[in-house]
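Budget justification note: compute hours in this period were largely spent on complex prediction jobs such as the one shown. Inputs:
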Amino acid sequence: MPKRRGFLRRGRQSEEMALQITSMADIFMILLVFLLKGYSTSVVNINPTQGLMLPEAHAAEQSVEALKVEIAIDSVLVEGMPITMLKNYKFDPTDRIANGTLKSLAPKFELERKRQFMIAKQNSDVKVDPRIMIIADHRVPYSTIKAVLASAAIHGYTDFKLATVRGE
Amino acid sequence: MSVSMMEPGGAGSGKRHGPGSQDFDLNLAPIIDCFVVLIAFVLASAAFLSIGILDAGIAAAGAASTSNSTPPPINIVVELKKSHQMEVKVTGKMNRTIPIAATKDAWNYEALTQQLAGLKSSFPAVSAATLQADDAVEYREVVQSMEVVRKTLPAVLLGGF
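Corresponding output:
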C-alpha cells in the first residue's frame, strides 16, 4: 500500500509539467528558411542514373536547357530513354559508320531535330536549338564521347555542353 | 489582451489560466508537426551536389569570334596522347609542334600552362584552342585538361571527330 500512495503523489505532480516547445519551433523555423533558401528552383533538372559519376570541374556555369544525352556504364540514354547498349563503356564496333558516327543514335537525333524544326515552323518565337548536354561518366573513354559528339554534330547539335560536378 | 508563449505549464495545452483571465498559451504542437514534415521533405529532395556546365562547342568558339572579328593569327590544338603525354600543335603564322612529357605518370599541366601562356603573350589575339584526345583517354582527364587550358585560353572546343 505505501508504494501505491507514492505513485499517486507523483501523478498529481506531473499534471503541472509541460514541454517548452517555443524554442524548438524557433529552431525549426530557422532551419526551414535556410533549407528553402538553398533549395534549387532551376527549371533544368539533371538526374544522372545510378552509378554514374560525373567529372569534377571548378569553373563551370549554370545548367541550361538542352537535349540531354547520358552516357552511363552500360547504355546511352537520350532524354532519359535508353537508345543503345555499351559494353565496358564502348560501343559495339558494328554500330559505327565510316565517318565515326553511330547507326543507333542517328534516328533519335534525327527525330529530335525534326521535332524542333516543326515547332520552330509553327511558332516563330521558337528557334532551332543547337545545344546538347552530355552527361557522361568520368571513366568513359574519349572514343565513346567522340562518337556521340560526331553523331550529334551531323544532325545539327554543335553546341556541346558538358555536365560536371562543381568542385570546391 | 496579453499572449504568453513562454510561460511553463501550458504550451501545447491551449487552456486558459483562470475563468476571468485573458492569458492563454498558443498551441504550438501542430506547427511543430508541420515543420518536422516540411523539413523532412525538403531534406529528402535536396540536391547536395551542384551541377555545372562546361562549354565545349560553338558557344565557346562564338565567344571568341565575337570578341575579335578578325581570324586568329594562329590555331592551337592540344592533343592528349597515351601514357600522359601531350602535344601542342600550332598552325597559322607559326607552325610548331611542342611535345610535353609526362611527370611521374601524370599529365604535366604546369608545362602545358607555361607553353600556352608563352603563345598567348606572343599572340594576344588568340583566345581559343581545340582539345583532342586519344581513344583510350578517360573523359575525366579530358575535362581536367579543358579546365587547365581555359585558364589561359577561355574558349576550348572539343575536337578530333
